[in-house]
Amino acid sequence: VSGIQRRSETSLKMVLGGIAEKMTGIVEFISGQSTITESNIEDTLKEVKGILIDADVNLQVTNTLISKVKEKAIGMKVDSGKKPGEQFISLLAAELVDIMGQTQQTLSKRSDGRPNSILLLGLQGAGKTTACAKLAN
After folding, report:
1. Strand partners, 77
2. What is the pLDDT of residues 83-131, one digit of tens each?
3. Cα separation of 84 and 86, whole Å?
4. Which residues pair with 35 in a beta bridge?
């Protein structure tokens, strides 16, 4: 694994880690259910949408993700040995991977020897400077 690939993995984990941290409480919305229904995941999906929008995820991507998760989750039986929230998070994670892509693309160096340019955008306090420092290392 190249240094560039490790740094991009670290940056991705940093971004997704912040989202994951915020999503830990959403599983409580559907706890104790044996079947996932539209009524018992509506609040959960609203919370997920808010978290993704706060994380600057594109609105169209967010809406697509919410629609896919809702379509697959409604009527899903909760597996024995799994909590409803855990199963929902597994479904959400699988859909996120599907949207972002199954394979990771490495950041390649320019062939002309000049440094790569990377544009970082985000709100104040979103972690742009930290991400830049991690990429530089």
Report:
1. 35
2. 777 788 888 888 888 887 878 777 788 889 888 888 887 777 778 888 8
3. 5
4. 77
